[in-house]
Amino acid sequence: MPRLKILGFIVVFTLIGWSAVGHSSRAQDAATCENLLAQAVQMMRDSCDGLTPGNVCTPSGSTVALGDIDILRTAPFDLNANQWDYALIQLPAGNEPIAMALFGGAAITPMAGTETAMVEPLKASNKSGYNLNMRQGPGTDFEVAGFFGWDNVADVDGRSADGDWLRLQTEAGYAWIAADLVAVEGDVSQLLIVSDGTNPLEQFTLTTPDISAICGAGAAGLLVAHAGQDEVALQVNGANLTFDTATLLLQAQPNTNLEIFVIEGEAAVNADGEQLTARQGETAAVALAGENGLEADAAPLVKPSFPLDTLIGIPMGLVSDESLACTAGMTHEQQNASAFEQPNSDAAVTALLLADAHYPVLGRLADEQAHTWWRLEVGWVREDTVQVVGSCDAVTEVAADTSVTTSANMSTHTGAGAALFSTELVPTSDIIWSADPGQDILSGTCILPPLPVCSHPVAVTANGATLSWRGQEPLPYTLNLSGDNAYTFNGRNNLNNANVTMALTFTSPTTWMMTMTQVFDSDPACTHALYYNAVPR
Amino acid sequence: MLQRSILMIALLFVYVTATAQDAPETTLTSDLTPPTLGEFDEASASNIDLADYPNLPELTDMARAIFARGQASGRNPHMLSKIGDCMTAADYFLVDFAGDSYNLGQYADLQRVVDFFSTQTEDILPPKTNAFASPGLATDSGFTTSSVLDSTWADKDICEANESPLACEYRLSNPAYSFIMFGTNDVFYFEPAMFDYYLRLIVLETINSDVVPLLYTFPVRPEFPEKSLLFNQIIVKIADDYDLPLVNLVVALEDLPNQGVNVEDTIHMSLPENDAVAIFNDDTLQAGYTVRNLLTLQTLDVMLDGLTQATP
């Protein structure tokens, strides 16, 4: 069977009135996008029902075996041509396959057989006292690949996702051996999780196009979903992902970042010898570089949130029967949005929403003017001040006086916000902190390069519902209490040349984390993000 | 009797003349009026051509006068202060010359400088065993020109209440010289007028503390080349205005790979192989940190020649 070099699927929908789509308003475009995605999901369900593990399904319903694919590429979203494109993949993995949907111009290139170890091999010696079977794959179901003598020593350069099997480098090539029967010099957990070669798409290179804002930032990428207790693993652009039950959106533009948006569950991301776990609502980012700009080049970073825009356009229905939960956030055009203590604009402001964050909707209520108010963890927001995505019709009505949970462990801070949130981890005395901002992570289309910032002292003073944060500029920033032990700022920087957001959370009385984003007036399509970690100086 | 009187007067005149000639000049001739924020005139600095200034400073009359005043008030001629940001706080700046991990190579004549400033004296701040060894109390990662003037950032365990890091450093280290380098962080946070203002305040406080300020131009921030140039011109202008020695580091780094800047971490200078910043040879002197160390020792050499040796 000839190998498929390029699999390009173009879905053309014929919808009444779509000839005017290219000239329609933004709201109409958004509605068109939504319709297009819904149609695609329905088409997939009609044509790809019964897709078996190890295969890819096209919108036309034809299937291709994963092993026959060299490159899997989809066409970009094109509103004017009414085109959207996707491929549905069922990847064998333990008891439950991994469902993946590639869409909107994204492409993946399997790496089977070409992976290279990212860490130095470790020496492994037989500790059993017996000659051991080596296997062709990580498990006793695989064929015996030879014997590992009782006194043999060999290099191991990889491990299975569950760590039960190690990959040996032998004179005859790779072979696998049970991990508990060998003694390894070094930290096995740092070894690369490698494929056994039976599932070509366990290791692949992902590339996604520059995202069109019209249909949402989530309208291109790779959606990955797995439900089950077995840990599964993927290697994407050289970064290792392990998870059990999770839904992830992956995007990778050359020379920027591999970004893993955790829609549900959590995922561990390992790159450059370091591992971090990103949980629901967070983003893991791995810098990409190399000859093609698509190779993991740094340790992962975890961002505490991602913009609402990322959730717009995600075709959840392709990989899951569950709809995207109702979520609120700010739109591109908005400068700010406030959350209130009660579903009333005259009530106390509890938080300013952040441009790069999204907020699960916990309830709803209509006021006397028939405005719908959404209840978020940080307070109440009126419908016309935010954008929502997901199954918001299903959000249940709640009473106004159940607005925001009051923590039983609230400390003595006072003020409007403090009445709503716990500040038990917020120091009551002034402390000078040593703050490490990490690397400057860019997103969007940038003119300016990353702008590194030195680690520096920070003076933090909490005063009820506000917190003064002063770095090495003469003037401080005032942050508002916006959640349990959490403060936010949304405004201009001291130099008045950039919009700044700051989201600081005390993770203990002696540690805090903060995300600071800056969008400079001179580079308005580019967001600079710093992820601070701080300890007392 | 008249002859004796004339002789006495003549002898007295000779004595007074000799005394006047031998005593160091301590009158500060520069205008030391504190600056006003907002009065900065960018045009007064932006015409300065950095290349017109040598890499190594000349000993100025102002520096002589400040040094003399410092000696009269008890400043330690063996001690210097390091004032600046992470590049000054780093162990790569001079620290190796406090021990044995240096090799002066073809600059062996600088050994007398190392010996002189490695001297340990009893009145030195405990963590500061000699002039090279410690970063001191007025340099830290992330510091800007305003940081060292702000008591918020002073070490509360050592410094007095409301004492700035700069004042604390001068009080406890008791230096005769102060090496001052800022700009790398300032270009990110400050407008030129603010940088000019805060740097002038630092220089004035240093002069008024009878400590000789030695100003460096700073390495170019590749992300802000134009602002880096202007801020360096401001440094040169301030050195000119107060008749102070200037170490023209940015020009000395000009021909180095990446202008002596770490390309992956542009807020720091480049390092030689094995971080050998105190070993002077053709290879290591291709790195920014090494060149700064060499220029600093050579600057101290100039000071020793003109000042310290003249007033033992």
Write up this protein.
The complex is a heterodimer of chains A (537) and B (312). Chain A is mainly beta. Helix content of chain A is 4%, strand content 43%. Chain A has one helix and 44 strands. Chain B is built from eleven helices and four strands. In chain B, 38% of the residues lie in helices and 7% in strands. Chain B has a four-stranded parallel sheet with strand order 1-2-3-4.
Chain-averaged pLDDT of chain A:
78
- Tell me the span between the first and last alpha carbons of chain B: 41 Å
| CATH C-level label of the largest domain in chain A | Mainly Beta
Helix content of chain A: under 10%
Global morphology of chain A: globular
Write down how many β-strands of chain B occur, each being a DSSP E stretch of 2 or more residues: 4
**Biggest interface between chains:** A-B, 18 and 25 residues
Strand content of chain B: 5-15%
Give a brief description.
Chain A is mainly β and 537 residues long.
Search tags:
heterodimer, A: mainly beta, Jelly Rolls, SH3 type barrels, 17-stranded mixed beta sheet, eight-stranded antiparallel β-barrel, 1 helix, 43% strand, globular, disordered N terminus, B: 312 residues, alpha/beta, Rossmann fold, four-stranded parallel beta sheet, 11 helices
List the helices and strands and how they pair.
The complex is a heterodimer of chains A (537) and B (312).
Chain A: E1 7-9, E2 11-12, H1 26-47, E3 55-57, E4 63-65, E5 72-74, E6 83-84, E7 86-91, E8 98-103, E9 107-110, E10 122-126, E11 132-135, E12 144-148, E13 153-159, E14 165-170, E15 173-178, E16 182-185, E17 192-193, E18 203-207, E19 221-226, E20 232-236, E21 239-243, E22 246-252, E23 257-271, E24 274-279, E25 283-289, E26 295-296, E27 301-303, E28 327-329, E29 338-340, E30 349-352, E31 358-360, E32 363-366, E33 372-376, E34 379-382, E35 387-389, E36 431-436, E37 441-444, E38 456-463, E39 466-470, E40 477-483, E41 486-492, E42 498-508, E43 511-520, E44 526-536
Parallel strand pairs in A: 1-5, 13-17, 18-20
Antiparallel strand pairs in A: 2-6, 3-4, 3-7, 5-9, 7-8, 8-19, 9-18, 10-13, 10-16, 11-12, 13-14, 14-15, 19-22, 20-21, 21-23, 22-23, 23-24, 23-25, 25-26, 25-27, 28-31, 28-35, 29-30, 32-33, 33-34, 36-38, 36-44, 37-44, 38-39, 39-40, 40-41, 41-42, 42-43, 43-44
Chain B: H1 2-22, H2 43-46, H3 61-72, E1 76-84, H4 86-89, H5 111-117, H6 165-173, E2 175-181, H7 186-189, H8 192-208, E3 212-216, H9 225-241, E4 246-247, H10 249-252, H11 288-306
Parallel strand pairs in B: 1-2, 2-3, 3-4
Helix pairs in contact in B: 8-9
